[in-house]
Design a protein that fits this description.
291 residues, 5-stranded mixed β-sheet, Alpha-Beta Plaits, D-Maltodextrin-Binding Protein, domain 2, 3 domains
């Protein structure tokens, strides 16, 4: 029988970005709208689709060998798991997300002390209660099933909500008065599974490919040819993760150069390279970058 690991994938806000990263990493996952058990083109992986909020507890108790979830939900569940790696991506971008304390724009509340005796709605109840306790504030914290922004000020005085850009909060006329915590997407493993040599190797393999896919985000490869007399000037212009790859061409006095660059600088970089004497410039996309 083929050995398998059970991999928990986040259903909801992280689902689309996670499936995209897995695709870049080399895994094609097919999700049915009616099933919590997607298919994957790797016979050694058995994926399960669950809410990110639930994943840490299922990884902790061994129902899943590993999973992708947020650091916030590991903290909320107080889950005892092994963090394999940080996966620096979120729903919209590649930066950590924040759980913030927000109140109406017109509110006189300016900091956490002003919430004494108030009512707060959030999905992150445990972490919020710890935050209030640390700041010596007594307030009522109630679980929110969704549409949290719409509950202020009619139902609650403040909310603790997840945000990447703050745009949704601004659209609901809310202002941020503090950050409760930051969170990144994390690849986690069950402690017993991590001690199993075959499972650990498989988990580390998946982790390596995912990190390679993330490293390739917003980066491109550049190839070009250069005469020997222009080589020094061209190399002074080129960015690189380390050093550019340089090789001699069959034509005497010519070199081929290859480098990885941030995509956002290439538009201006190509013009500078051309002016410095570069020829045959090629820009190509990357799926994985393994340091």
């Amino acid at each position: 029988m083929t050995k398998k690991i059970k991999l928990g994938l986040p259903k909801g806000s992280l689902q689309e970005s996670t499936l995209r990263m897995l695709k870049k990493a080399g895994f094609t996952v097919s999700v049915s709208s009616r099933s919590y058990f997607p298919s994957i083109d790797d016979p050694e992986i058995e994926p399960v689709l669950l809410r990110a909020q639930e994943l840490p507890q299922y990884v902790e108790n061994g129902v899943l060998d590993c999973g992708i979830t947020g650091a916030d939900w590991i903290l909320e569940n107080k889950a005892r798991v092994t963090v394999v790696t940080d996966l620096m991506y979120a729903k919209q971008g590649m930066s950590p997300v924040r759980w913030v304390l927000a109140v109406p724009d017109h509110s006189a509340m300016k900091n956490v002390k002003d919430l004494q005796g108030k009512r707060i709605a959030t999905e992150l109840v445990g972490v919020t209660k710890e935050y209030l306790k640390k700041n010596k504030v007594k307030a009522t914290v109630e679980f929110s099933w969704g549409a949290t922004e719409a509950k202020v000020p009619q139902l609650v005085d403040a909310i603790v909500e997840l945000t990447e850009t703050g745009s949704s909060l601004r659209a609901h006329n809310l202002k941020i008065i503090d950050t409760i915590c930051q969170s990144t997407t994390q690849f986690i493993a069950n402690k017993s599974a991590w001690k199993d040599s075959w499972k650990k190797d498989k988990i580390e393999h998946i982790s390596l490919l995912l990190q390679g896919a993330i490293n390739a985000e917003d980066k491109v490869g550049i190839k070009l040819n250069a005469r020997e007399e222009n080589l020094k000037k061209i190399l002074s212009i080129l960015p690189a993760m380390r050093n550019p790859t340089i090789s001699s061409l069959s034509r005497p006095g010519w070199y081929a150069i290859e480098v990885v660059s941030d995509e956002k600088v290439v538009r201006d970089l190509i013009l500078r390279l051309k002016k410095a004497g570069a020829e045959g410039i090629i820009e190509y996309t990357l799926t994985k970058v393994i340091p």
